[in-house]
Task: inverse folding
């Protein structure tokens, strides 16, 4: 029996259905069409609004500050922005997800706090244990993540080349990607020390402290290590086109390598935006000057696998220190990612192409990349995860989310579409104003191999 029908401009994987409808039964899409809709217990007509597959954000940091309870505000921010599944990074406070018991605790937190669905990364300590790696795989992590740069000796350590190679070899034959935070430790340390000694500690020096060569050196080393194995190597964020070209070169050699685009690299330019936003715009690798247009070309050429937010909602006091080197790296992006990407894409391609690009890069591609069966498309048999975007020009204000940090680098930006409702597995979890579902509705989504 059809329980729910949603009406609007339906965006499928390949087409836009004007005056379309989506039929939902048992939390899944049962049919999609136009014209006369099936009889249902409930019908919600969104008029000319876009009905897109709910976004799958492939890079979030829910637990890096307050531990697993961070799953509550993070998933609430997700549904505020039309994101129905998050893929959460393993660098939680105070213990990263390196062993099965820690993963069990995080899954329990999802079942207690989450209002949208959640897939999980795993990681390793500086000396990986193959038994722990296998334990995480067996429990359904969708990928592993390591860093060539130490942000914290325990929670976010540097993994050296020997340990990286061990992990790559352990992942052969599993299909799981190994993601890298790609910055060279020594280059960054030297550049930062040099700038500090010269008294150059303003926000405008952030990019110089982590120069492109640090990013490219780490990327190249990682890809070469991966090329000696049959594992899947993935760069979780690249800020310059040269990095994507490097990935393309290795792919041309027949290696399984991919790269990810973060939405902020497509929206901001360090030359114009860093002076006004200062530490609010600090991310690693940095947003660069003069690269935005070239990075859009990277996306349009198909050189990135998908687009993510790299959401990290630090409290404002961690983002407003006088020295950029004392500011926490990362910024909230879950609420803004979908409307920001759609708006920017529409300026380049028009609304229809923007809708298709959004469905592709923010839903279908990440769902397939992480092996999340039933996610990422509006099609029969898939979960009824739907983001409703109203064609409503508005000014973004992060303070409208009472559970958010109250600030955003996106504050004051004009968007051409507004999240008007979010459905997770056929249930409305956001009504355009407030979160309407209780914590614990979200589910842990294991990777399907």
Result:
């Amino acid at each position: 029996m059809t329980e729910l029908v949603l009406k609007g401009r339906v965006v499928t994987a390949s087409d836009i259905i004007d005056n379309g409808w989506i039929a939902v039964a048992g939390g899944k899409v049962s049919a999609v069409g136009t014209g006369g809709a099936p009889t249902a217990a409930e019908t919600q007509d969104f008029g000319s609004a876009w009905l897109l597959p709910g976004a799958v954000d492939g890079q979030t940091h829910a637990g890096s500050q307050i531990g697993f309870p961070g799953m509550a505000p993070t998933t609430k921010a997700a549904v505020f922005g039309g994101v129905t599944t998050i893929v959460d990074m393993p660098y939680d406070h105070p213990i990263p997800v390196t062993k099965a018991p820690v993963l069990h605790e995080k899954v329990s937190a999802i079942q207690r706090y989450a209002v949208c669905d959640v897939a999980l990364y795993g990681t390793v300590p500086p000396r990986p244990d193959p038994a722990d790696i296998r334990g995480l795989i067996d429990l359904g992590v969708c990928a592993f993540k390591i860093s060539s740069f130490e942000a914290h000796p325990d929670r976010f350590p540097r993994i050296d080349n020997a340990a990286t190679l061990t992990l790559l070899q352990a992942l052969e034959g599993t299909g799981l990607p190994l993601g890298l935070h790609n910055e060279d430790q020594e280059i960054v340390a030297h550049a930062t020390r040099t700038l500090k000694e010269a008294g150059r500690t303003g926000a405008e020096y952030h990019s110089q402290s982590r120069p492109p060569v640090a990013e490219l050196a780490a990327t190249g080393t990682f890809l070469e290590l991966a090329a000696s194995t049959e594992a899947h190597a993935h760069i979780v964020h690249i800020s310059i086109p040269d990095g994507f070209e490097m990935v393309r070169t290795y792919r041309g050699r027949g290696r399984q390598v991919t790269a990810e685009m973060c939405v902020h690299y497509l929206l901001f330019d360090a030359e114009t935006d860093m002076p006004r936003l200062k530490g609010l715009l600090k991310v690693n690798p940095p947003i660069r000057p003069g690269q935005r247009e070239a990075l859009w070309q990277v996306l349009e050429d198909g050189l990135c696998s998908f687009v993510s937010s790299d959401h990290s909602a630090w409290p404002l006091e961690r983002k407003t220190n006088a020295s950029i080197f004392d500011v926490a790296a990362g910024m909230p992006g879950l609420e803004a990612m979908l409307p920001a990407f759609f708006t920017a894409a529409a300026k380049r391609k028009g609304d229809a192409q923007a809708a298709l690009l959004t469905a592709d890069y923010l839903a279908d591609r990440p769902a397939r990349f992480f092996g999340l069966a039933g996610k990422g498309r509006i099609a029969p048999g898939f979960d009824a995860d739907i983001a409703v975007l109203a064609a409503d020009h508005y000014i973004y204000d992060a303070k409208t989310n009472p559970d958010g940090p109250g600030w955003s680098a996106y504050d004051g930006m004009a968007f051409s579409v507004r999240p008007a409702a979010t459905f997770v597995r056929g249930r409305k979890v956001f009504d355009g104003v407030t979160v309407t579902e209780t914590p614990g509705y979200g589910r842990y989504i294991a990777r399907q191999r």
